[in-house]
Amino acid sequence: MGTPLPNSHAKGRFVKSAETHRNEWHYACVEGHWDEALLPSGFPRRHWRDLAVAIGRMGPNALGRAWQNGQQLIQANGTSYNVSDELHGSERRWPLDPIPLVIAENEWIEIERAVIQRATLLNAVLADLYGPQQLLHRGWIPPALVFANPHFLRPCHGINPCGGVHLHSYAADLARSPDGRWWVTSDRTQAPSGIGYTLENRLVSARTLCNVFSTCRIRQLASFFDMRRNSLLGLAATLRPNPRIVLLTSGPHSETYFEHSFLAGHWGFALVEGADLAVRDNRVYLRTLTGLEQVDLIVRRLDDSFCDPLELRSDSTLGVPGLVQAVRSGTVAIDNALGSGLLETLALMAFLPGLCRHLLGEDLLMPSVATWWCGQAESRRYVLEHLDDLVIMPAFPSFGRNPEFPASMNAATRERLIGNIEAHPEQFVAQEQFAISTAPVYTDTGLASGRVLLRVFAAWDGQSYTVLPGGLTRVSTKETSQAVSIHRGAGSKDTWVPGGSGEPFVAPPPAFGPLHPSWANLPSRVADNLFWLGRYAERLENRVRLLRALLPALSGEEDFGRTASVETVVRLLTGLEYLPPEVSDASLGEQLWRVQHLLTDMIRDESGSTGLGWNLRQMHRVALQLKERLSTDTWRVLQQIEGDFSKSIPTNPDQRYLSEMNLLDGAIVTLSAFVGLVMENTTRGHGWHFLEIGRRLERARHMAALLQAGVAEAPEEIEPYLQILLHIADSSITYRTRYLTALRTDLVLDLLLVDESNPRSVAFQFAALLGHMEKLPLHDDTVCLLEQGLVSRALQAVRATPMAELSQRSDEGHLVALVELLQQLRGNMYDLSDALAAHYLSPVVSSRFVSSQ
Length: 853
What we know:
Blueprint: E1 10-11, E2 29-30, H1 49-77, E3 80-84, E4 89-93, E5 96-102, H2 105-129, H3 134-137, H4 143-147, E6 169-176, E7 182-188, H5 195-208, H6 210-216, H7 222-237, E8 245-248, H8 257-267, E9 270-272, E10 277-280, E11 283-288, E12 291-294, E13 297-300, H9 323-329, E14 333-335, H10 352-360, E15 371-373, H11 377-385, E16 390-394, H12 411-423, E17 428-432, E18 438-443, E19 446-460, E20 465-467, E21 472-476, E22 491-496, H13 524-550, H14 552-555, H15 566-575, H16 588-604, H17 612-624, H18 632-645, H19 653-681, H20 686-712, H21 719-728, H22 732-739, H23 745-754, H24 762-773, H25 781-800, H26 803-806, H27 816-839
């Protein structure tokens, strides 16, 4: 990879604004680097002029305001990049820069030709190395470069991929040297990442700079993605007339998981993990709610060696045992072919010019960065004599090995490196360092100079390779950084190629027969996540309603003229097992302190499973695994909830109370919007039924717990508890308008327990659950009868118990019948959850739920 030289004398201006000095841009090119935007004279390059003038007219203030909208769009879309540490991963908001990189149209034509040629060449190399290996026999590639490479998968030798193409997708990382020439710094042939981020960059950029975008007539990206989808459908159709395609991901902890879910949703393919697939009789199947469904094409976003723990890497928990044999049998196609990571070795670059002349009969159109493989004596001698001018890299990509710069090493480290090279020369590659080009980057203080690396994508269209018009531009303003990497803190840019007057024709997808029913593509793991998403969403709403009802007791605020006493709140929280029993016997001051501390933690503390923060985090975690199945509006609502709870709280007690109440009020509205979007926009398939089952089951469980603590275990002076329950259940107005009388236990039980017309009652939840159970796919009659029987018995128990008996106290003052009924109902709910998990939901994934009140 090209390595930047230190910044030196700067000269030139980007544009001079006619407005005040505060609204001027000040940007200078860096001596010794090719600047993408400016000529050495300081004037904008011809293909940058429209953009430069438009940004100059906007000025920093207007662009800053426009970019705030762009950042809000990135957050609302949940565009992220996961950065993992040793213990866990963390999501980082996608670092997009608002100023795009513009590439001249005539220059892009040359880049396009070069990338097509390179993809064609590498595909031919792959076909030979995993086939006849004539390149090895005739000396065009040293055998050590292949057989010492851990990415050469011996079990894949001799496999002829479906369609005869090994490399369906390819990416080349390009950098520009100070003389203006583009060089290839690396090849990505396994599962090239970045194409989804490229499209997301364009969607944000086109909205942020919409007027400029239309003026510059930028080439569109949509046709490439349509072509890519159609070519995959065409490849799969060679195996079966009505094929099924899945996108294989390593899971939510993958750095580029957003892209995986984005592409799956954009193309309409099922997003699966290795545990969702199984191999039977040399065929790959998807585990769905109705059983195993055959898979014809796997678009993998997983490295080669992890794909099959049976034949490739035994310690992998991400792949599919038996996948290599299924590919060998020709029953499933893989994009790209297993073993294609072999070509990502930098050492191969030294041999590509000769390979191009031998295989294609032409010169390489775009050179690679000057590369020396130390496995050859002459190259090794040159490297050891010119260490200060080179960067030393591992010949075979591996985790934990970074580039080394001998020029900045001390004597001991330098000698150690020389010793390693001489001991294991085949493990090292040297590349020439050069000052890569720069481009303007927007910062809070104005424009800065950032070093640019461009990733260009090509894909097989069924006849040849087609190049995405643009690409993923990465940019870094860190002078000390030796690599332009998103993982190391670099940013990204949209890439504009002018000349978008007309779009190329895209062949329509192959004609299929009747499509599979929508539920057939629903993996058991997805149903599991939908089930828990419903539970966490409902649990979050239940906690919010509980806190809204109890917080006024701490401030003395009255609700409808009545105030819940601290004693009432303590007894209710004790019954719900939020507080230990001994708090009921404490002094009033200590009780007030304990309640205040508990309620505050429930709102803000993310460590306890009873709190809003913890449940919100779990809800986000589950939703992230469903992102390709959630609508954009639904995802934005979830993002809004997280944004509201991430805001800082005032330190003043009065302001803090008001802030917390406003937060809870807003959360109710936002959660209601989430439920409304799900109800109105989700098709009534099996996924929707599991989402609703989770919601109804959790609401029934919560209401049963409230009735247990607030009625069955309440003292005979029960009116304050009944008032709180009605408030929590949002049924106070219903009670007043229906009964026109004082609060009575039997009437509250009638409304919150047995009334099937009240959406908050227990009976309503069981009636809804019974309807959903009848719509689930049947495995056999036993399963059907078991689950429906659990719900039906619970509903009949509620209907059959006389209200007078439920509200009648024993000689000891207990509501015995009510206690027995609630215990029976709660037992049925736990049995139902276990039955669903055993019969439908993924058995290989641990429970997403921590049981607590």
